[in-house]
Design a protein that fits this description.
- By secondary structure, this protein is of the alpha+beta class.
- The chain folds into two domains: about 30 residues, no CATH class; about 160 residues, PUA domain-like.
- The protein is built from six helices and twelve strands.
- Strands 3, 4, 5, 6, 7, 8, 11 and 12 form an eight-stranded mixed sheet that branches. It has a two-stranded antiparallel ribbon with strand order 1-2. A two-stranded antiparallel sheet has the order 9-10.
- The longest helix is centred in the N-terminal third of the chain and has 16 residues.
- InterPro entries: DUF3427.
Length: about 200
């Protein structure tokens, strides 16, 4: 059995010592430690982990065993949870995105993120007002970010950056927002997401 196999490995002093060395090495070289989200409802996603769109939509209950509605947008509002989720691809190619969807999305630093709405959103729409006043109304803004749509011919997953708070906005159709992340972006992600870094 598995238990017997583990016991046999641990009973051998050389194997046990090697396992301890491997665990200590891995612990010393952790790139990040994931954090639990603070949503007031059940959601199995951990901050700074990577997820596919399917996994995110399933975690929010949009997809389940009975239904998987079509989803092509970069944003989704879950009214029951009062949560807006943004799927952000930083480096967009002309072949994957139309000129009207080549938004300017980038990190300003490890906490501030610049994001553009869809081209039809103006300041007086209900959507824009929900974004601007999300704290007063109890709504949450949640960011999922990836560098490219595809890497090595596979669809890239998104890094869950957690919740963000409104800082400022400007423009119309599209609107440009600055969000403040509640958790620092992972250092590796900052270098990728900040397009001013050469």
């Amino acid at each position: 059995s598995i238990e017997e196999g583990v016991q046999r490995v641990l009973s051998c002093e050389a194997f046990r010592a090697e396992l301890v060395d491997i665990f200590q090495y891995n612990l010393a070289h952790l790139r990040f430690v994931d954090k639990s989200n603070s949503f007031p409802y059940t959601c199995p996603l951990d901050i700074h982990c990577m997820y596919s769109i399917d996994q995110v939509l399933a975690a929010f209950g949009y997809w389940n065993a009975e239904q998987s509605p079509t989803f092509r947008e970069g944003v989704k509002y879950f009214a029951d949870e009062q949560t807006d989720i943004f799927f952000i691809t930083l480096n967009k190619s002309d072949k994957d995105f139309s000129p009207s969807t080549l938004y300017e999305d980038y990190a300003i630093n490890e906490r501030l993120f610049h994001w553009q709405t869809q081209s039809r959103v103006s300041e007086h729409t209900a959507t824009a007002q929900r974004y601007i006043h999300h704290r007063e109304t109890g709504n949450r803004i949640v960011l999922f970010v990836r560098e490219y749509k595809e890497e090595r011919s596979y669809t890239s997953p998104f890094v869950f950056l957690g919740e963000a708070d409104y800082v400022s906005h400007e423009g119309n159709k599209p609107m440009s927002f600055v969000w403040r992340l509640r958790e620092d972006m992972p250092a590796k992600m900052v270098a990728v997401a900040n397009k001013c870094i050469v």
